[in-house]
Amino acid sequence: MLFDLDGTLLDTLEDLADSMNAALRQLGFPTHPVAAYRYFVGDGVVNLVTRALPEGDRGDATVAKAVALMRRIYGEHWADKTRPYPGIPELLDAVAGRGVKMAVLSNKPDDSTQLCVAKLLPRWRFHAVVGASAATPPKPDLAGVRTIVARLAVPTEQFIYLGDTNTDMATATAAGMFPVGALWGFRSADELRASGARALIEKPADLLGLL
């Protein structure tokens, strides 16, 4: 079982939005409502920052400065409001209880991914936890998938991949995994279906029927 993190296991939206808005304010740019961040997040911090900046202020230097500021602020406030979604602890208990190997693949920077899993999901064993880094480009690049498949020693076609964005569905499809869309996350059923979801679930417990 391969899980996305933000929007799938953890409800991170408010902390991401609050941190990005704080960075924008410090740089003198307008902020955005929390709901807008559903479409800004999901493809890594550089894309988040680029989408949040005004169209005329997306030069490399401005993006780099905003990324550094966002990462500093988020590093201090990432756990203010972030929690597992309702039903996720019970789902992880059930999956682990069936002896299914579990892993996490996120487009968050790897250090943030490791911290989130260690602090907010400490009860469960994940055989691999992988975030974005110089060696692992963000999804839909398959480098992270290859790392996880090698560590778990399970063929890709035996993985269920649960995620909440078009990027997750495209990644799962390209890897030959079974893509499942989480409807409690950041994107719509239409987007998930159009991006390759082979099943859509409304609550975490629904995943157990697919095992």
Describe it for me?
The chain has 211 residues and is an alpha/beta fold. The chain folds into 2 domains: 2-11 and 82-210, HAD superfamily/HAD-like (Rossmann fold, 3-Layer(aba) Sandwich), CATH 3.40.50.1000; 13-77, DNA polymerase, domain 1 (Orthogonal Bundle), CATH 1.10.150. 42% of the residues lie in helices and 14% in strands. The protein contains 8 helices and 8 strands. The protein has helices at 13-27, 45-52, 60-77, 88-97, 110-120, 143-152, 166-175, 189-194; strands at 2-3, 10-11, 83-84, 103-109, 128-132, 160-163, 178-182, 199-201. The strands form 2 sheets. Strands 5-4-1-6-7-8 form a 6-stranded parallel sheet, sandwiched between helices. The chain has a two-stranded antiparallel sheet with strand order 2-3. Helix 1 (13-27) packs across helix 3 and helix 2 (45-52) crosses helix 3 (60-77). The longest helix is centred in the N-terminal third of the chain and has 18 residues, at 60-77. The chain is globular and about 50 Å long.
Summarize the topology.
Layout: E1 2-3, E2 10-11, H1 13-27, H2 45-52, H3 60-77, E3 83-84, H4 88-97, E4 103-109, H5 110-120, E5 128-132, H6 143-152, E6 160-163, H7 166-175, E7 178-182, H8 189-194, E8 199-201
Parallel strand pairs: 1-4, 1-6, 4-5, 6-7, 7-8
Antiparallel strand pairs: 2-3
Give a nutshell description of this structure.
The chain is an alpha/beta fold and 211 residues long. The chain has helices at residues 13-27, 45-52, 60-77, 88-97, 110-120, 143-152, 166-175, 189-194, and strands spanning 2-3, 10-11, 83-84, 103-109, 128-132, 160-163, 178-182, 199-201.
